[in-house]
Design a protein that fits this description.
three-stranded parallel sheet; Rossmann fold; 2 domains
Length: about 160
């Protein structure tokens, strides 16, 4: 990320996969902005070494601020929090609230069940095919950056 002058905007914790990625981006000289709710900061999970750390009142405020600061969304394998944030930005794209790329890093085919569900939603008439295309698949990290270049988010 640092090599492409992309900044990382994420949930602001020092734990988990995103904490590791934040540390790697910082170590490479990149900019990392974290947004964490006070409740989580109180649990001492906030990353105190970021370029910027914003402590907000609620998860809703966190997601709103993250969406405002981000130029694109990349979902890596994760749990409920990742699914929540992913579904929200996909819903916002469907409603034309934003036009930012949404990329799912499909490491070891992690997101294949979700892609199958989205395809079924199209088949069953619950999702229009042009909205299905909001969920872009990246096979690996290099593919994420290829898609970001194709979407005009980083110089190519």
């Amino acid at each position: 990320m640092a090599e492409t002058d992309c900044r990382l905007v994420y949930g602001g914790a020092h734990v988990g996969l995103m904490g590791v990625i934040a540390d790697a981006v910082l170590a490479a000289g990149g900019e990392v902005i974290g947004i964490i709710p006070q409740q989580l900061a109180d649990r001492e999970v906030a990353h105190r070494g970021l370029t910027e750390l914003h402590v907000v009142r609620s998860m809703h405020e966190r997601k709103h601020m993250m969406a405002e600061l981000a130029d694109a969304f990349v979902a890596m394998p994760g749990g409920y929090g990742t699914l929540d944030e992913l579904c929200e930005v996909l819903g916002w794209a469907q409603l034309a609230i934003h036009e930012k790329p949404i990329i799912l890093l499909d490491t070891a085919d992690y997101w294949q069940p979700l892609f199958a569900m989205l395809d079924r939603a199209v088949e069953e008439g619950f999702l229009q095919s042009h909205h299905r295309r909001h969920a872009l698949r990246a096979a690996d990290v290099a593919d994420v950056f290829r898609l970001l270049r194709a979407e005009g988010q980083i110089p190519g």
